[in-house]
Amino acid sequence: MQQHNxxxxxxxxxxxxxxxxxxxxxxxxxxxxxxxxxxxxxxxxNCINAGFNHIFVLTQFNSASLHTHINSAxxxxxxxxxxxxxxxxxxxxxxxxxxxxxxDAVRKNITHYHPxxxxxxxxxxxxxxYQMDLKDFLARHQEQQAEVSIATTCVTRxxxxxxxxxxxxxxxxxxxxxxxxxxxxxxxDMAIPEAYRQKYNIDPAHNxxxxxxxxxxxxxxxxxxxxxxxxxxxxxxxxxxxKNLKVNAYLYRGYWEDIGTIKSFYEANINxxxxxxxxxxxxxxxxxxxxxxxxxxTKFNNSEIINTLICEGxxxxxxxxxxxxIGVRSMIADHVHLSGVLMMGADFYETEEQKSAxxxxxxxxxxxxxxxxxxRCIIDKNARIGNNCKIGLSPNSLKDGDYNAYIIRDNIIIxxxxxxxxxxxxx
Length: 427
Known about the structure:
With 427 residues, the chain is an alpha/beta fold. The protein folds into two domains: 6-271, Spore Coat Polysaccharide Biosynthesis Protein SpsA, Chain A (Alpha-Beta Complex), CATH 3.90.550; 299-421, Hexapeptide repeat proteins (UDP N-Acetylglucosamine Acyltransferase, domain 1). The protein has helices at residues 41-49, 64-73, 102-108, 110-113, 134-143, 194-199, 219-225, 233-244, 262-271, 352-361, and strands at residues 6-11, 32-33, 37-38, 54-59, 83-88, 120-125, 128-130, 148-155, 164-168, 174-179, 208-218, 247-251, 256-258, 299-301, 304-310, 315-317, 320-326, 331-332, 337-343, 367-368, 373-379, 384-385, 390-391, 401-402, 406-409, 412-415, 420-421. The strands form six sheets. Strands 1, 4, 5, 6, 8, 9, 10, 11 and 12 form a nine-stranded mixed sheet that branches. Strands 15, 17, 19, 21, 23, 24, 25 and 26 form an eight-stranded mixed sheet that branches. A hairpin with a 5-residue loop joins strand 9 (164-168) and strand 10. It is globular and about 70 Å long. The model has no long low-confidence stretch (mean pLDDT 92).
């Protein structure tokens, strides 16, 4: 059996403009997911479950909260030598610029990888939802004697419009690449070969292979592939590698979702509360790791809860909540009605003295006030929503835009972090 010492590199992304305003005060990997996790916990957990415990996270925007989260969540014992570390953009004698693309970010940090003598580099995205056996991904890469392997998923012709589509031969070697072909282009020649489709029992309706933006490179292959001025993996490095190297497709058959937009982020979170969620958060063999908070149990005071995830440390009184995800330390007062709400919770509890000061200053407490109704909404952390508010109850009247304390995108209302929504507000 071949020896391996893989090093994982998680791409933290740029400014995360598609997830704004959730990325207004934090980097994309630090955005809260599932009430108690962060997006970065997903690729990190996949790595740890595979036994790959040398992990770097590359980022350059609003990285303070990401630093705090990773430093407090991921502590390996001194004998394993494992780590999860952030590599933020930095000025050096050889470079004074920020990261200018995914490949550029990996290249500028390459000297930090060498002390760990990696046999392979595993490049992962920081904003995708999946549970992949990365150990199997690496094993297949080695078995096929590939220089580069790309994780792929089968998609329909319609879904192929906005993805990078890979053409393979009957053995799974990638021979061509097409970035976002759109609806009008004839891509029938990119379809999965019949022999390969039958071998893996692929549904004919999902007859195209899309890149998941996750790669394995042999050590020397990555370093030689970046010995140039190419800036982006998907647009430059991978197409160049396909023409010049042995690049193989790794077929992933599980659930995968790119959660880089507000709509996909919202839908992926709300789906977690459904009867049969697409993403399994209760797999004891492949747990999802995050920071331990040591909070008290959630308390329900005469409330009705339907298809909802509610995280620890919350207090909910005489309220009706359905198809929602409620984050840690969420305070929900009497007679509140929530449906389709992603509430990220709070970073702290308010004392009685602070609540008295809030009342004197005419501002709501952190959480949701009494007799408030909210539908199809993301409530970012530490938001203060007053009494008798009605939010999202008339979706046909919503118009995308920035309204200071909140933003509307795709008929989804996003209440900003630390926002104050006064009593009797109608949105």
